[in-house]
Amino acid sequence: MASPLKGRMWCLALLLAVVGVFCGPQTSPAHADDKFTCADVKGPARDYCQDKPGEHAEKDPGACKLLDGLARKLCEDRSKGVPGPPEDRGGDGLTNGASDHVKDLAEWLIRKTTNLIAPGESWAPEKASDGVFAPFLWLGQHLALAIFTCVVVVCGLSAWQGTPRLRQMGFSTGWTLVAVVGMASVPGAVVAFNKAVSQAFTAAFSSNESSLFGAITKDLESGADAGNPLAILIIISALCVALGFAALVFMTRQPGILVFVCVSPLVLASLARGGDAEAVQKWGQRLLGLMFAPMALLLVAPFVKIVQGSLVMDAVLLTAADALMLRMIFHGVPYLGPRLARAARSMVESRTTYPLARAAVRVGAPNFHEQENSPRGPRLVTTPGRAMAQDSDVLFAAYGARPRPRPGRLTTASAIGQINADSERSARLMAARRQARATNTNQPPAGPRPASGGRGPAAAPSPRPAPSSPRSPAPRSPRSNGPRSNGPTTP
């Protein structure tokens, strides 16, 4: 019983060995035999072996996509003419790999900055039928028609005036049609302008080596300090700061464009009254100022060629661009621009003590004083006596008399109420004036000025002795004792 079992075990072991030989990993002929040639391979592998580096990719450019991992990397490298695995190549060590990552980071920052400053797509609606724009369009059209109807009714009731009313009705009819047509065309025009600004900005800042971002990309590869870690750190830091300011530009510019596009029907409806375009001009200035604000960065374009070749100088120029971005928020964003720029300046100054950064934000957001509306207080009502006096002055003027105007003043109770209402503001202003006066009083007097010859301070003049008694007036001449006459005197 033992011998048949032992024979069966030997047969099973032999069978497993044969299966392992045929199914196990095979050693590559190229590594098994140093004299291996492509003639030893048959089929499609022979054709691939006989191809030179780069030829197989030209025949089948999508062949490497069928592989994964390291095999795909080797296939792509062979198609580019780079033989051998990555660890066998010269110059592709840890340092160059880190340099590639830094370049990729810089390119990503440049791309994101460009897309944030002047994106090709805006938040504004592209068509008049958009859900955000449609309610404003409906309201603006009906408002224009209501104004036109009122003008027609007024002109009809005063038709006896003849040509002036007829001319006014014609103006109102024409401008109403212009307003209704313009309301529907605003979204398309804004989208076209935004794409034009985006393309112009991209061409001016990242199209070629003569632009700012193009010069930075080239200097990262072949600049004089391309291998200097400190220079690379400075330019990456500058790009990160520029990305932050670009994000601020995006968050102030895009909502502003959206708001001005949405209120455009309400503004254009004002034309229906007869062509008064003052409100439309203000609206157009605000909207175009927002859309063309990125073009302010063209001021740094002439200096790109001067600083090209140095990453540190590129960082300085990029800092100037950051100051310009803050400045265009200050001037270009309506209503809220100065406060947003001042908030950005305060944030930068509270988080860094670097003098260049502080100087840049001070240039971008200068000091300013705000002017506000005076508070809307109680109405000003005349007393009965003043009202009667004003009416009597009008009556006397009708008869040809010239009454003397009497300026009005608040009554005692009203003046006390106004003082109480402004007491807090008045107290703060008085405290500020007192503090400024005390500061000026406590300042030390200026030192003695040096002499003109430069030999030191001049000697102070000796003080005059104080008079023991008050001076007596000078004696007058006998002629001056009498009264003065207005005419000339004769001797």
Q: What topology emerges from the helices and strands here?
A:
Elements: H1 2-23, H2 29-32, H3 44-50, H4 55-59, H5 69-79, H6 94-117, H7 134-157, H8 163-205, H9 212-222, H10 229-262, H11 264-268, H12 278-291, H13 304-307, H14 311-332, H15 337-351, H16 355-364, H17 384-398, H18 412-421, H19 423-442
Helix pairs in contact: 6-9, 6-10, 7-8, 9-14, 10-12, 10-14, 14-15, 14-16, 15-16
Sketch the topology as an H/E string, one letter per element.
HHHHHHHHHHHHHHHHHHH
Helix content: 55-70%
* Mean pLDDT score: 76
The first-to-last residue Cα distance is 176 Å
**Using DSSP, what is the number of strands?**
0
Largest sheet: none
Helix and strand content put the structural class at: mainly alpha
What portion of residues belong to β-strands? under 5%
Please tell me what the overall shape is: flat
Question: Can you walk me through this structure?
Answer:
There is one protein chain. The protein is mainly alpha-helical. The chain is 61% helix and 0% strand. Helix 6 runs parallel beside helix 10 and helix 14 runs antiparallel to helix 15. The C terminus is likely disordered.
